[in-house]
Amino acid sequence: MSQQRPSTLGALRESTYRPRTVHEEMRANLIVRLKEKSNPFPGVIGFERTVLPQMYNAILSRHDFILLGLRGQAKTRLLRALEGLLDEFVPAVLDSPLNEDPFVPLTSETRRRIETEGDALPIRWIPRADRYREKLATPDVTVSDLIGDIDPIKAATQKLSLDDPRVIHYGIIPRTNRGIFAINELPDLQSRIQVGLLNILEEGDIQIRGFPVRLPLDLVMVFSANPEDYTNRGNIITPLRDRISSQILTHYPRTLEDALAITRQEAWSERDGEVAVHLPSFVEELIEETAFQGRQSEHVDQNSGISARMTISLRENVISNAERRALSLGEPSTTARLSDVFSALAAITGKVELVYEGEQEGPQKVALVLIGRAVQVMFDRQVPKDERPQAGTEETPSAFQPILTWFGSGKHVDLADDLSDAELQQRLGAIPALADMAQRYLAPAPAALPDNELPAAMEFLLEALHQHSFLSRGELVHGHVYRDVFEEMARSLNS
Q1: What's the pTM value of the predicted model, to 2 decimals?
Q2: Model confidence over 362-372: pLDDT tens digits?
Q3: CA neighbours within 13 Å on the CB side: how many for 267?
Q4: What's the CATH class of domain 2-249?
């Protein structure tokens, strides 16, 4: 198909090609997508009524724009998806470092070639994948990196004087001409470097070592930034911010359903190992709820946020812990459960920035607290208030009373991390009414819990009773033990 495209300027003149700016190109292609009801940003979940309409508006307005949001809010993914709004191929003058349109030449060298070679001027076709480039803003980025500098080696090898514009080595921005250039974490770019972007955005002028080079670059400039960076590491200078036409705010998933969909899409859940790990829906929900609780915890720095990468890593670690247990027991399959979540704290502690009070508690303890709060919230969501056990259980009996009575008689249950599913079922099955309560409150209505999920659901309910202070939980070397609260108090006093 590429052989059918014009390969010379003369053939291009006779074709249907007509030059248009990148902004016009993206606008036209977005209009087609919107008419076709085709999503230009596949894989982006939860932004359909918030972020995406603002991006559509910016593109339709032919704006350069910035995405502003905390870490892990899909900013980079959104920017990279913009490539899909470019034409599949565009023509450029062969050997031009600036991807010059043969109908709109930028440099005197290209204009000279057009006059000299005429219709025989060779043409190359640039695929859309080569027209998107991005740069992570770091303090060591220089003007030379972005815009360009004099190349003395080129001057020496081509025997050019240093006042000849041909000695200029263009930076990454001019080399992205007729494409999209993205700068991630813009506030990290030094202020004096940001100044170099002003004329590129507005007037198309750049100056390199005293060369007043007039280059009307055809670019869409897009940026991302974290609000925390404005005070912690840098800021966006006011003139530059004024030239960025649209500022679009991103956000974390606002519903549990969106959060689940993102994690299911991104996490490595389908393993190719020897063990099949089943992940119950209530364990999936627990993983997501842990992040929601972290985003409102007084121990967590809310200016940093909790990335969606935390739940992705947590889900993968939960599956891996269940997989490891089954491998050690020689079982072909297993079901992930609460103890697997407790064993996956490494996925939480490294992704949560703590305030001073949280640092005093320690990241491990804060992670356990977040999981505990998530269990508590899920229990309250599933169990109607009038059916929950109350503090005065004798006056206000509930369906959970047989469970509490069993523990109140001096019994306890040890749940080691390495118990097989069958052993877990056997130990928890001895507790009256526990299986019935698990089926009643954790089964996906109208279906019943499958047999392989029942032990995990029963363990979850015991933890929920502990989080509501109806049971105590003691730590074992490789697991935990649930007891009556008063028995635990007596044991602690005796010790």
Answers
A1: 0.88
A2: 999 999 999 99
A3: 26
A4: alpha beta
